[in-house]
Amino acid sequence: MMEAATALALQVGTRPACVALGVPRATFYRRLAPFYGPRPAPTRPARGLSDVERETVLAQLNSPRFRDQSPAEVAATLLDEGQYLCSSRTMYRVLDEAGGTRERRDQLSHPTYQKPELLASGPNELWSWNITKLLGPAKWTYFYLYVVLDVFSRYVVGWMLAHRESAQLAKQLFEDTCRKQGIQPEQLTVHADRGSSMTSKPVAFLLSDLGITKTHSRPHVSNDNPYSESQFRTLKYRPGFPDRFGCIQDARAFAVDFFHWYNEEHHHSGISLLTPSVLHHGEAPQVIASRQTVLDAAYLVHPERFVKQAPKANPAPSQVWINKPSTSEDNTQ
């Protein structure tokens, strides 16, 4: 069929021949020039530079006179001297084929930071801490709130409000907090971002003396410290949080009330609506059992309201991750 179409196309044209024989024109053209298979080697354009001319251009570009100048500058200089070898764009192509178009300056290469993958399966195993600014009474005035949070229970184990951000103040906060929580060597890991106080030598030396492992977030990755960031959002979205604090005493009074509410009254959605204090101090089993008793009584009164099964109280979390590693099953989905 294709031979007949080809022969007829020479007499009446491609389109009439394909219509007469019922051959799609796309198929006709594809059979003439198959898409698959070896392709002919590209030929040099007739108006392109010869090998001798390309060598001459490359010699000029690499000469001591022009090796530190751009092709545009070289072309303009030669043109002013009454010599034309080729266009500046052709000079770039010649240089590129010879491997001479790389960045000449040394480029800064950022180190590869490993993503922190931290696990807490109980209180006082993993702490997260950060510092946030609270607006003061006038523009450009701030108070600095230091907060240390237990990642497993979300319990605020220590906080401090100061006029400035200081490594010595952070060191003092950790000394007091570790003493109150009875932290033993090799028990605790402390995670933070890469702020100046977090990476300071006084804090690093103190944690090393106490046998505490410290880790840091990757630069500019707030998701590596999510629990502290979330806690600050809860703070600043509380009803009654002012636009500015009149003085540091006002800020401290607000912080006292807030952290008492957060630890003792706030039912945290990330820990099965338990309060951080209940989970931190090991009271979760009793609270969950009490909730289950209430649910069982409700089920006995109105079982028809629970269609699938009897209600069950949500269990307490057994582990909490910062950047939980992906499993092979997750990767295949």
Automatic annotation (TrEMBL):
Residues 310-333 are annotated as: Disordered. GO terms for molecular function: nucleic acid binding. Residues 119-284 form the Integrase catalytic domain. InterPro entries: Integrase_cat-core, RNaseH-like_sf, RNaseH_sf, Transpos_IS3, Transposase_IS3/IS150/IS904. Residues 316-333 have a biased composition (Polar residues). GO terms for biological process: DNA integration. It holds the Pfam family rve. PANTHER family: TRANSPOSASE INSF FOR INSERTION SEQUENCE IS3B-RELATED, TRANSPOSASE INSO FOR INSERTION SEQUENCE ELEMENT IS911B-RELATED. This is IS3 family transposase.
